[in-house]
Amino acid sequence: HVQVVESGGGLVQAGGSLRLSCTASGLTFDNYAMGWFRQAPGKEREGVSCISWSGGITRYADSVKGRFTISRDNAENTLYLQMNSLKPEDTAMYYCAAYRAGGYCSGSWSHYLDNYWGQGTQVTVSS
After folding, report:
1. Reduced to 3 DSSP states, what percent helix, strand and coil does the chain have, rounded to the nearest 5?
2. pLDDT at 112 over 90
3. Which of 28, 45, 51, 72 is the most exposed place for a label (fewest CB within 10 A)?
């Protein structure tokens, strides 16, 4: 069965950095676009970033452009999210997703929820 596991969350001061990691098993990793979503208390889950199967295409939410970088290592079945210049509004549970739709980030990538999901990793940014 498919298993998606995130790690790397924590507590950081505003302006700091964190690197999230996600490993996926039980699927052919490089058949899938991968993404990061986040959900803050009382808010809907929102797409943060998406990366195509090869890593050649990336997409970002406007709120994180220029601060976050998504990458993947297909040999290691691992997805990363480097988060720099963190802000208190970045505080949320961050979820890794394997897009069941296939290997590319569609136009609706940030709202597409029919994915394989991890359990989430908490990111808290203090002011």
Report:
1. 5, 50, 45
2. no
3. 28
